[in-house]
Sequence to fold (293 residues):
Amino acid sequence: MTFVAILAIGTVWPFGMQRLLTETAAVQTLLNTFLGGIILLVSIVVSINSIVLSYDIISIGAQEDRHRGTVEFRREIGHLTDTDHSTMDPASFLTMMVGVINQRSHELATVTEELDGEAAEEVREHTETIRQTIENIEQSVAETGGGEFSALWLGLDLDLGPLMDRSRVLHLEYADELSASGEDRFERLIRAFEIITTGRHFFKTLYYKREFSMLSRTLLIVSLPAILVTASTILAINANILPQIWIFGLSPLLTFVAAAFTTALAPFIILTAYMLRVATVTLRATDTEPFVL
Fold:
């Protein structure tokens, strides 16, 4: 788009653009700024990525504790589904957990037999709200086709916080009227909400690690050619050694400078694309925080 935009401006405003490119030092000044910015940008991003990756540089004891926590989490998920294994990719995890929540909401609906009047009606309305939410989630999962980012986005977009909080409120409010079995059904449903929340937020952490690693790798690959092209362009303009190849009737100088500017901007465009994705995911993942703006 940058390349096309510069060519379009040069085509619409040919004489002014030609004068700007040949009679001023603005082009060299901008390219010098881009050259320094690319080098600084790579240094900053690699430093940030080093901080992110430092999460994995820990002692053997910490590694063991982390592994033990992972095994315990997987084991609990297996208990939820009465299987010996658990699937941990976003789409399978989301599908599995909404099924568990749906099942436990049906189990909770039987608690209304132990309650009277308004209490039974509140629990009945709550379980119906859960089932409607689960049906919408299952339909959305089917529509995504199991894509990794689509499933992650759907998981982060779930509004499960109010349902979990409402379950806790009803459990505490009517605890004295419930049998041990009724209390257990409330606790099982709340625990299912907690597990799906923990799991989907850990997927967010994995997504951040992957995005920053890919950003660093992509910038390192793109920045070296960008530095070489930008430096060569500055030297070529300074020495007045420019290509004389006409492409589709466009001025050689205009085409050359447009290509140079596009190459110099490539690292910044890549950074912008990655940061927009990460920032968007972050904004959609705050529903379980203690306070929400």
User: Anything to note?
Assistant: The radius of gyration is 29 Å.
